[in-house]
Every structure is written in C-alpha cells, then in structure tokens.
Amino acid sequence: MTIEERPLAAGDAVTRRPLSLNEEVWCALDQGDVLGVFGLRKIVASGWRLRGPLDVPTMRLALADVVARHEALRTVIVRDPEEPHVRVHAAGSAELDVVDLPAPADEAGRDRRAHEFLNAIDDAGRCDPARVPLLQATLGRFDDEDAVLVLVTHHAVSDAWSIHLIMRDFAISYAKRRGLPAPELPRARQYGEYAGWQRQSCQGPLADEAREYWRTRLAGGKFLTLPTDRPRQPDSPPVYSVYRFVFDEELVSATTALARSVHSSPFMVLYACFNLFLHNRTGARDIVAPIFTSGRTEPEFEQTVGPLFNLLPIRTDLSGCETFADLVRRTRTALLEAYSYELPFSEIAAVADPELMHESMTDVNGAATGFESFQYPQELEAGMIGDVHYAGLHRRLISSDDTSEILDGNLWDFALDPSGDMVGAVKFNGLDFDQATIVAMIDEYRELLRVSVNAPDSPLARP
Q1: Residue 305: CA atoms inside 13 Å, Cβ hemisphere, count?
Q2: What pTM, to 2 d.p., does this model score?
Q3: Which of 16, 247, 286, 298 lies 20 to 30 Å from 418 when distance is taken between CA atoms?
C-alpha cells in the first residue's frame, strides 16, 4: 500500500497509559490552566524556509501523517488529583494556516522577514494542552515557491529535539505524497514505550549506583540564584522576554581551540566560564547550577517525539582552581560524571537534600539560571527532500519583550553557527529582570570568556 493510499487513522479508541516520570514532574508543578507548566504559552516553536513547489492540500495531508506517526502529538495529560494519567487519541486531520507575506525584492530582506514571521508566532503562540492534535503549523508565503513554515507544539508533549524530527518527517511525507523520491522514515518508538522504558531503567543495581552518586554529590548543595531587579511575583502571570546576541568568530575559534587542547567540548568551556561568571557575581565557590540535556540516553528513542529533555544539577567546587584551564578540567570532570550517572531529574531530586531546590523556589529576590547548548538532530539543518529545499531558521537574532514561556527562572542557550560564530539567547521573566540587566550579564560573560580562553593559564579573571 502506498503512502497515498494508507489510511491515516491509528485506531478508533482512545487509549490510556500511566504517566512517564517527566510527566509526573509536570503534574507536580501544575498551577492550573493559566500559570505554570500547562499554560497556553508553554510552547516550542521553530521555523524553516521552504523553496520549491508548495501544494497546500498535500502539505495538510503530510502534517496529518506526522500526527498519525507520533502518538505524543495526540496525547493529553489528564490532571486527575486522584489518579493522573495520559489519554492517547486516535489520529485525525491537522490544521495548516496560510498567510501571504510581503515579498522583499532582495534575499536579505526576505530572510529578515522570515525571522520576523517566526518571532511573531513564537510571541503570540498559544497551544491548549487539552486539545489534540498538539501540533500547529503556519505557512507564510512569499510566493508559490518560497515560504516559511513554522511549527508549534506544547512543551508538555514535545521538546526542541522533537520538533526537528516532526519537520523532517513532514518533509519526507510531503515528498512521497507527491510521488517523489525521498529517504525512508526510520522506525520511531512511541513516547508511551519510552515511559515504560524510563521507569524500568530506574530499577536495578546501575540505577541504585547512580542514585548513590547523586545523593553524595549533592549533599549540602543548593541551586545558586542570581539577584533579581525587584521582588518576584510568583502569583502573577510571567512576562517572558528573550535577548538574542552573537559571539564573534574569533572568540568562538579561541573557545574551540582551548576545548581541543584540554580534551573538552566547547560546551564544557562555555559552562566553565558560566561557573566563573556565577562566582564573580555571587562570591560562591561551591556552585550548583542546572543544565538541560536531550534526555535521549538510549539510542532506541532518538527518533521519539515527546518531552524527553532532562535537567541535571551540576555541582562544581572552584576551590583550588588557580587558572581557567584548571576550572575547565574541573568542570569537565563534573559534567562527565553527571552524564555517566544521568537519571530523570525527579529521581535525582528524590535522593537530594530538600535544600537543593528550596531557595530557588522560595527566594523572592533571586532566580535560578539554567544553561544549555541547543540540541537537535542534524538531519534537516539544510538540504533538499523531494523537490523542496529546507533550511532551518536557527540563526535567530531578533529579541522580544513578550514571548513564549519556560518553566521558571532564566535560561541561557548557545548554538554554534555554520558561519563560524555563535548565536545565543537568554530567556527571562521581565517581571523579575530588566533587559538592561541581562545585557550587562552577557557583556560581562563575553568579556570573561574572551580573557579566559586567550590566557587559560593566567590567574582566573576577576571583576
């Protein structure tokens, strides 16, 4: 049976399954339909430039194929106080909104308009986690063969890695529905299978060893917070902003060169500098700060769409680090140990001291700051599938003062760009911080990094 003939429905009945450990965390943080993790603005948005024949009815069918392929996009978390659970709905149609965009004559103008379009959807996007399918698509057309496709999912059923899988699967399905050669889709395990594997993986001697590592590693530690510009308002809807910036090619080259010389990754060097930044800002030497990982420790689930992302509390003691090279080595050790003992954050929190998160959750004058390097599969960075060229809009440089929300606190995000420089973003609650404060933080961090990577054996840079 060809893809054109294959029925879309995955089944008529709604099925029920237990929560994954990640979904349990979401339910534990539930603050209702407006505030918190189930709010309409807890979305993941990403965009691609499409050049080639664009057949809107066939695009809608390809999106429906993706919804049928990935049960997470048909999943609703039922927040029953007595027995929270998941309901997976049958496959159905998918919506695609089409907007005609003004078409600047020059390519630079179109590229900027494409990014403005993505930003506008990210800023205004709303996704109800109780309504399926949890995939929204908007096509902004410059003309019949040049457009921007923006995909939006709710974070309760997706993550940054997942949305790239969704786009790749759409591109392949679109080509095949039009009778064009395209790669075969790899087997995709469902998120429900991941939920079962995740629970099973947290049993047994290896999991017990990992718990003991985290119990010992985090004993007496607590997440470090940065002072806010004004007292936090936990009962008010947040107003998240994003500040975007670029680190130049010279700084990136020096960072990667130092990483190679000390057998580290660029992320390890960036995170070491983040530790130094936190030390200089707070005076703390014993630093616990969260990083985010893809959570895809099992290769079987690399093709799975769902909220697999994970948080790891990284503890780094700066005592005895005389130079930045010392600090990079110390940070590298802390990160490699954490990766090797990775458990779902709920399992880590269960064995850590209650003080680990107490201050970050109750301090009205401080906010925790997460750190990550943007992670996604590289299969659809840019290239032809069928007769359409797809290019990700990853080089996002337009800041916004009211955009989609994150769980809480601040999040620093870095991504090496194919051009050789590095694009970064800080997402923060504008009720807690002024943008000028965030800009000053990044300027300070940039200068710390520049001084440190160019003289790694000199004494640690101080304010």
Answers
A1: 28
A2: 0.94
A3: 298
